[in-house]
Amino acid sequence: MPKLIFKDVSKSFGETLVIKNFSAEIPDQQFLVLLGPSGCGKSTMLRMIAGLIDITEGQIQFDDLVVNDLEPKKRSVAFVFQSYALYPHLTVRANIAFPLLMDNFRWWQHIPVVGHFKRRADLRNPEIQKKISEIAETMELTSYLNRRPKTLSGGQRQRVALARALVRDPSIYLLDEPLSNLDAKLRAQMRVEITNLYQKVHKTFVYVTHDQVEAMTMGTQIILLDGGVIQQHGTPKEIYDKPANVFVAKFIGSPPMNLFEVQVDGQIIHLPSGDRLDLTGHSIPNFDSKRVIFGVRPEKLKQSESGEGIPVVVRVVERLGAETLVAFNFAKQAEDSRITKASSNLHYMRIPGDSTLNSGDHCFVEFNLKDASWFNLETGSRFQ
């Protein structure tokens, strides 16, 4: 089972550069998530790993083997597509068995009648039947083996697609947004099933998604891309707690990190509203400039019970059961309708679900500055 190594991988379509200088090293048996907005190059990267797209520059290695020119079928990878890609005229059994049948495919099987009987004979092969039964049991598909895809639900079709990938016993599993066609409940269920599957097979998974929830809950490592460039590579906790730049801070987290352009004067932060925060007792980086971007996660804010803190006006309250998300403006800015009506200027705090706050209420917010993030105002990069 190989270690994945990317050395300055780039991909261009004509004059359009899609992937730029992608370099990373992924140890064996990791669940790597390629995360980013639509059009950032993550699916292109996945297809280059599979050999479905040629590499323009750089190298992809499986351990010490450079696979740039290796045919897809010789790379020992399995690909799960976004659209399931099941054959509608074949049963679930035949769909799962298809990779095994193709391993024994010969040119003369293109002859219609001969090929049909050869595939039927191969499908009755005891070894192939055993593999199908084992995989079907693992994916809870045993009772559906003789049905066709059109009779299955979306979640069942996705399990068939996963079973077809599993049956080959590859070294690397590649999954291209496999849950995007499912509803919210099924996505949550399939996240658990894929995670359990990863823990059972102990193989390398490379998973493409634009959904940060999938990335944070399933991945052991995340590579966040934007415009074909790696923004950050790390564990979910590293990326959440210490975003490398403003883009990562905005992309990871729901709601995202609160970001404020502030003036730092010694141990005092001057917020855009004119309010002040005292940094006494907190260590902060050495800034090149006194104007920086200050970031704090919504769960690091709380409603003050003592009446101390920053005065705010509540704009939106989202009650989610165990927790409540509160969007607010600073009270000193409440007179400016341009600010209060602009969603981009709302800030968020995550508080317990039994909160009695409602839209329009005035309250005080306390900031926990222990795990605050600081970013360069000009470059957006994180101060270490």
3D structure, described in words:
InterPro entries: AAA+_ATPase, ABC_transporter-like_ATP-bd, ABC_transporter-like_CS, ABC_transpr_MalK/UgpC-like, Mo/tungstate-bd_C_term_dom, NA-bd_OB-fold, OB_MalK-like, P-loop_NTPase. GO terms for molecular function: ATP binding; ATP hydrolysis activity; transmembrane transporter activity. Keywords: ATP-binding, Cell membrane, Membrane, Nucleotide-binding, Translocase, Transport. Residues 4-252 form the ABC transporter domain. The protein has a 6-stranded mixed β-sheet, with helices on both faces. Strands 13-12-11-14-20 form a 5-stranded antiparallel β-sheet. It is elongated and about 80 Å long. It starts with a strand and ends in an 8-residue tail after the last strand. It folds into 2 domains: 4-248, Rossmann fold (3-Layer(aba) Sandwich), CATH 3.40.50; 250-376, Nucleic acid-binding proteins (OB fold (Dihydrolipoamide Acetyltransferase, E2P)), CATH 2.40.50.140. The protein has helices at 42-50, 92-103, 112-123, 126-138, 154-166, 184-201, 212-218, 236-241, 246-251, 337-340, and strands at residues 4-13, 16-26, 31-35, 57-62, 65-66, 77-80, 172-176, 204-209, 221-226, 229-234, 258-265, 268-270, 276-278, 291-296, 301-303, 310-319, 323-330, 347-352, 362-367, 373-376. The longest helix has 18 residues, at 184-201. With 384 residues, it is α+β, with helices and mostly antiparallel strands. β12 (268-270) and β13 form a beta hairpin. Helices cover 26% and strands 31% of the residues. The protein contains 10 helices and 20 strands. α2 packs across α4, α2 (92-103) runs parallel beside α5 and α4 packs across α5 (154-166).
